[in-house]
Amino acid sequence: MLNIDEVKKIANLARLHLTDEEVELYRGQLSSILDYVGQLKEVDTSNVEPTSQVTGLTDVTREDRVELANVDEHQRILNQFPQHEGNLLKVKAVFE
Amino acid sequence: MPHENGYPLPNELSIAQASDRLNCGECSAVELTQACLDRIASTEPQLKAFITVFAQNALQQAQESDLRIKAGKRLGVLDGIPLAIKDVILIAGDLATGASKILANYVSVYDATVIKKLRAAGGVFLGKTNCDEFAMGASTENSAFQKTANPWDTTRVPGGSSGGSAAAVAADQCIAALGSDTGGSIRQPAAFCGIVGLKPTYGRVSRYGLMPMAASHNQIAPLGKTVEDVKILFEAIAGHDPKDAVTVQKEISNLKSARNASHSDAGGSQISNLRGTRVGVPREYFIEGMDAEIEKSVRAAIDQLKDLGAEIKPISLPHTKYGLAVYYIIVPSEVSADVARYDGIRYGYSVENDREYLAQHPSFSLLDVYRDSRGRGFGPEVRRRIMIGTYALSAGYYDAYYAKAQKVRTLIRQDFINAFQEVDCIAAPTTPTPAFPIGEKSNDPLQMYLADVFTVTLNVAGVPGLVVPCGFTKNKLPIGLQLVGNYFDEGRLLQIGSAYEQATEWHLRKPLI
């Protein structure tokens, strides 16, 4: 069973604010899910390679070419900035 | 079901039937679209399948189709056909919410590749359908906005995550639809709603413009009223796309014979036979605790395949029972990275624009913007998966969880590769139970995950799966047969599904809504 500090640590790593009730709720739910997936321990994988791509493609590349957005696309991107100054995205200071 | 003199209403038609009517001028694209919009208006209060309906845009697209048809320049079988699109796929200039509060007001910047292809084929976009938030769920109850009802029993879920698209097809609110499938999100709702769904081989269909959800597992996929219809949509959306690096250049084989098979039936005389087709029945998919009516219907369907000439072979996929555990390690791990982009900074919900938040927090930091925008913007299941994934990838646990799951993934994939040495297709149930009541599993995430037990292994391995209606329970809930194909062998899968469909009448039944 995960403890409260572990749950808080994961939430912080994930940049996710949780209320105290949520920390308690997720502590139980994550623990039971982790118990369930823990059954993989019983599988012998000592001589097995991991799979990260199921159809066997490797090193797929393409030319890194700039495609200009049209006026509509450009405007749609600008319209969705939560905070802006003119056409610039405004963010809070990273360094105090 | 309202009928004019026993003749089906335009919105009740399949793509193939509607296309014939458009060709011979018996019906216009505007009439077809209006019939769907009328049906949406009359059934949405009960179903809640759509998040957004584009009535005006749809009618305009239909008018353009009609002009092409009149000029003898129809673009093909999809020109003028009204379609519903799962709200995780982008249509330029239209709302795309992912059924998430964090994107409640998001407007798509560009068209997804599949939308570009359907647009070029003359498809009409009716609207965006409800789903679980960012496609994470098995009941569509995880939508931030509404719960969709199953057209066969409105107290039950339509399945998920593509529940809105499946309900819309089953209730004739549209002619066909697109969804996406990461662990069963097309196939389980198709089974619950009594329609046809095809999850293509991994890499068959471009995901450019699909909201990301476990990139090593997911595919955009068609839902339709017949096997022929999902074949038409599949052919239209499949293909290599430089913007999705895992898409392949392979041709779709065996499609021609699938088409011939259905045409021979259209003549009414000959039902295509499956002589020479080897169908495997995996013992691991008939487990203790599965619904007895489902087992009975699926076994009867397998007998039907045998009657059609198929050779039935018992097979084993020995690592099946680990599929769900592999899935619920790898998928949340990928999800925790996928949704990192929703940060309250560039687009979507931000606490910086939330008056209530600003009133409570006179000052806050950049870190607060991240944590609080995400904490408030994401629903419980998305947050749960972010937490599991972050844990599984964190220092000290990576080898025990993620690396281990990727190795077991190899064994599951090998199971299928071995099986397809002996058989052409695998027949299995789609779900362990029929559609369950709304609310039944929503407080128990692990029980909800178990709803995917028969579908996730296909995504873990990357093989294609087709679901066709194969019966009903005593309570008139649909049951789906799942046919699993070898890598890139969708053509044969469609051929077998089509032969089964022609020999049965399950797909012709309509819900009484």
Helix-strand blueprint:
The complex is a heterodimer of chains A (96) and B (513).
Chain A: H1 4-13, H2 20-37, H3 71-79, E1 84-85, E2 88-89
Antiparallel strand pairs in A: 1-2
Chain B: H1 15-23, H2 29-47, E1 50-53, H3 55-70, E2 82-86, H4 113-120, E3 124-129, H5 163-170, E4 176-181, H6 187-193, E5 196-199, E6 219-224, H7 227-237, H8 255-266, E7 278-282, H9 292-307, E8 311-315, H10 323-338, H11 355-360, H12 366-377, H13 380-393, H14 399-422, E9 425-429, H15 445-450, H16 456-461, E10 465-472, E11 478-485, H17 490-503
Parallel strand pairs in B: 2-3, 2-4, 7-8, 7-9
Antiparallel strand pairs in B: 1-3, 4-6, 5-6, 5-10, 9-11, 10-11
N- to C-terminal separation of chain B? 7 Å
Q: Biggest interface pair, residues each?
A: A-B, 51 and 70 residues
Question: Given the helix and strand composition of chain B, which structural class is it?
Answer: alpha/beta
Shape of chain B: globular
For the record, the CATH architecture of the domain at 10-277 and 426-508 in chain B stands as Alpha-Beta Complex
Query: What is the arithmetic mean of pLDDT of chain B?
Result: 94
CATH class of the domain at 10-277 and 426-508 in chain B: Alpha Beta
How does the major sheet of chain A shape up?
2 strands, antiparallel
Low-confidence residue ranges of chain A: none
Quaternary organization: heterodimer
- Summarize the biggest pleated sheet of chain B: 11 strands, mixed
- Name of the top-level CATH class of the domain at 4-41 in chain A: Mainly Alpha
Question: Into which percentage range does the β-strand content of chain A fall?
Answer: under 5%
Helix/strand order of chain A: HHHEE
CATH fold label of the domain at 10-277 and 426-508 in chain B? Amidase signature (AS) enzymes
CATH superfamily of the domain at 4-41 in chain A: Glu-tRNAGln amidotransferase C subunit, N-terminal domain
The Rg value of chain A, from CA coordinates, equals: 23 Å
